[in-house]
Description:
58% of the residues lie in helices and 0% in strands. It has two helices and no strands.
Amino acid sequence: MSDHNTSHAPETHSADAVENVVPLMPVVLPVVGGIMMFLLAFIAVTMA
């Protein structure tokens, strides 16, 4: 008659994108910060 899924196995969660990026933050943040400082200094020198 009706087919009920009665298995009590834990649900499998898909990989979250945020959880994949978090271990890289100590490397990514300083690199992006350095690039941003270089670009802002380049813009400031060009405007002057």
